[in-house]
Amino acid sequence: MGEDKKIWLRHKSGSYTTKTGYYTAVERKQITPEQNPRNLSDWLPEIWKLTTSPKLKLFIWKIKHRALPVGDRLEARQVLSGTKCIHCESHESISHLFYQCTYALKVWELVPFSGGFNPMPLNDFDLEWKRLLRTIVLPPIGLGNAILAPWIIWAIWKARNQKLFQNRTFSAQETVTKAICDAKEWATTQVPVKTCEQRRKIQPNRSTTEITCKSDAAWRKDLQAAGLAWSFYRNQKERFSSHDQPVAFVNSSLMAEGLALRAAMEQAVALQMRQVVFESDSLQLVTAIADGSSFSDLHGILSDIYLLSISFDFVSFSFCRRETLCFEDSAAKNSLSNFVMTQTIEPVLV
């Protein structure tokens, strides 16, 4: 049994996304996306798909939502009154802090952008942000513009807070240097996201793997039952063992495929097999295993599959075409047919 886990039911993967969260909020307010004045397509390239730290993505998102506690926002919420810019004593707004303040202008002058970056006095934050993302960072900094720009914005914000709350003053040059160093440090620590197979080194060389296991399932929605079947082969052709099993309380065909694969792995462990390639004609199942997805129907089954994989020296999960599973497909349907005839079956915990 897998550990309890929260599942987001608004997306088939079970994982929360800002897009599905937004549309859920829209439904609750009973408005349509067309009524929203913002262009929703801008959020992905301008924030969520940026190559930068998640905290900076959230920071930029707050700025674009006018949720940053700068002077004008604090006055509007009647938190403080008479707030001024900590650097120049002017009225503090988001656009002023990041683009119009004399301190911010000095910072942007020192950033190594091709052609420089001169904020336009009448533009709001969104328009200047679009311009920033199109600028080019000069060598030898070694950072893309979409990587450096968020760190510059963040450094200006940090310098403001340091002066306001700790009375520590940083020059424009120190702020730019800090932003570049932080951006480089973050970029160098990033590693490609590895799949479950890569993390556990469970992708063997097919030529050295002696055993292939093919699994399939047949499912009836009206009975919430399934027939499972799996077979073991040597050199992809010589079948030396096959098994089938009916199960009850199966909510979907994907769940049935997962149960068949799990049963095959349990059988392989019982037979003390050490190197096995498991094949299934469910691309969704194989992808979920590789990506570590959180499908609500598969959570417990995937947890069992990951635990069972520890018992092998090498294990791989591969997609195969349905026509290569003729024997297993027939066995699974026969198992389900026998259940339909007898209407007696022992439930299986999932």
From TrEMBL:
Residues 215-333 form the RNase H type-1 domain. The keyword Membrane applies. Keywords: Membrane, Transmembrane, Transmembrane helix. InterPro entries: RNase_H-like_dom_plant, RNaseH_domain, RNaseH_sf, RVT-Znf. One of its GO terms (molecular function) is nucleic acid binding. The chain crosses the membrane at residues 136-157. This is Reverse transcriptase zinc-binding domain-containing protein.
